[in-house]
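Section 5.1 Outputs to date
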Amino acid sequence: MIEADGLTKYYGDFIAINDVSFSVPRGEIVAFLGPNGAGKSTTMKILTGYLAPSAGRARIAGHDMATDRLAGAERLGYLPENGPLYPDMTPRSLLEFFADARGLTGDRKRERIEAVVKQCELGSVIGKAIGKLSKGYRQRVGMAQVLLHEPDVLILDEPTSGLDPNQIREVRETIRRLGERKTILLSTHILQEVEALADRVLLISEGRLRFDGPPADLRREGRSLDERFHELTRST
C-alpha cells in the first residue's frame, strides 16, 4: 500500500534523504523513527506528493505520487505535524469545508461527517471555535478531516507532538482503532510510541534507512530501545 523505491532528495548540495527504500503492506502500523532532522518529514512529504524526489519513486496503493498524484490522494489521508486548521471555524464547519473540497455531497457528506465526529469523539466540541480547543482536541479535528473520504492509507507526522500524557493516550487509542482497518505510517522520534503502537519499525538517521524490522528485533541482545536508538543514530 506504501512503496518507497530509492527515494533521494537534494536541497542544493545538502542530501536530505539518500536512497531510502521500503514498503508497507495492507493492515500494518509502521513507526517511522529517527532523531530530529533525520529525513522523516521529507520522506513523508514525498510519499504524499507534496514534494518531488530528486531520484526514486513513491507509490500509494500502486499510484506513482509524482505522475498520478490525484488518484493516489484518493486512497491517502495525510496529517502533517501541526497541520493547518482554521481557528475561527468550528469542527463542523471545517469538516463541511473539507467534505466539499473532497467532492462529498448530500447524504454521503452528512454520513461521513457524522461518522468521523463519532470516530474521533468530537461531539462535545463540535460547535466550538477550533482556536479555543485544547491541542488534543485540535489533533482529533485534524484526524477527523483526514478520515472524511475513507482513505486506505494514513500517513501521520508526529501526531502526539506537544500533547500532555492524557492527550497522548487518547490519540494513541484512536490510532490503534484505525490500525485495525487501515495501513498506517507513523512518524515519530518518541521511543514510547514504538512500543505502544508499532507492528514494525523503520529507523532513519542522516537521511539513510538504518533499520527495518519488528520492535523486538530492535532490542538486540537484551538492550533497550533507547540504547539501540543511540547506537543506530549517532553520527559516524
